[in-house]
Design a protein that fits this description.
- This is NS1.
- GO terms for molecular function: asparagine-tRNA ligase activity; ATP binding.
- Residues 1-213 form the Aminoacyl-tRNA synthetase class II (D/K/N) domain.
- Keywords: Aminoacyl-tRNA synthetase, ATP-binding, Ligase, Nucleotide-binding, Protein biosynthesis.
- With 219 residues, this protein is of the alpha+beta class.
- It has a single domain (5-200), classed as 2-Layer Sandwich (BirA Bifunctional Protein, domain 2), CATH 3.30.930.
- It is built from 8 helices and 6 strands, in the order βαααβααβββααβα.
- Strands 1-6-5-4-3-2 form a 6-stranded mixed sheet.
- Helix 1 (11-32) packs across helix 3 (48-57).
Length: 219
């Protein structure tokens, strides 16, 4: 995982950083790995260079979780997993949004229900959602997940209680807020997912040097 953390940042800063990071990496690949990309374009995924150019050149779509659910419910697509406000989006939902609904453009979904996100994500003023975001890309789905962190001690303690988590076990985390904190945000990017996205490889196991697969552990 690649996990930057930004001080004095909110969710908008977090999304901007994630966008800039992904665009920089993709642009660097296109400019400095041309032979490799020609190989992938010929033998792995036709059109991958055009797809990556779209990441660099086109604006990312921004969508709230609520709007994403409405979009999925309004589609004629029959999904394996149900779509309902309050349920997490599955890979098939994410890929439909980025590949079909928005024609292959990266999509950032924000403001998820607090029940399906971690306790440390900052609660929004509506009391129902948190300042969290996922960046979706074609063929992979979620590539980056992040949030603005909850810097308010009383809200953090309330979230621990809501999720029936023992506050004594999180004393060290609470102390970070108790003795001084600032608004901050961060995200995690799955490196193997990035390799998969940038190369066009179908199976993520082929993007990992030593993949863990069922039956491979001898001890």
């Amino acid at each position: 995982m690649i996990e930057p953390e930004l001080a004095f940042a909110d969710l908008n800063d977090d999304m901007a950083c994630a966008t800039a990071y992904l665009q920089y990496v993709v642009k660097y690949i296109l400019e400095n790995c041309k032979e490799d990309m020609d190989f992938f374009n010929t033998w792995v995924e036709k059109g991958i260079i055009d797809r990556l150019n779209d990441v660099v050149e086109k604006n990312f779509v921004h969508l709230s979780y609520s709007d994403a659910v409405e979009l999925l419910l309004g589609s004629n697509k029959k999904f394996e997993f149900p779509v309902k406000w309050g349920l997490d989006l599955q890979s098939e939902h994410e890929r439909y949004i980025t590949e079909v609904a928005f024609g292959g453009r990266p999509v950032i979904i924000r403001d998820y229900p607090k029940e399906i996100k971690a306790f440390y994500m900052r609660q929004n003023d509506d009391g129902k959602t948190v300042a969290a975001m996922d960046l979706l890309v074609p063929r992979v789905g979620e590539l980056i997940g992040g949030s603005q962190r909850e810097e308010r001690l009383d809200h953090l303690e309330a979230r621990l209680d809501e999720q029936n988590l023992n506050k004594d076990s999180y004393w060290w985390y609470l102390d970070l807020r108790r003795y001084g904190s600032v608004p901050h945000a961060g995200f995690g990017l799955g490196f193997e997912r990035l390799v998969q996205f940038a190369t066009g490889i179908d199976n993520i196991r082929d993007a990992i040097p030593f993949p863990r697969v069922p039956g491979s552990a001898e001890f």
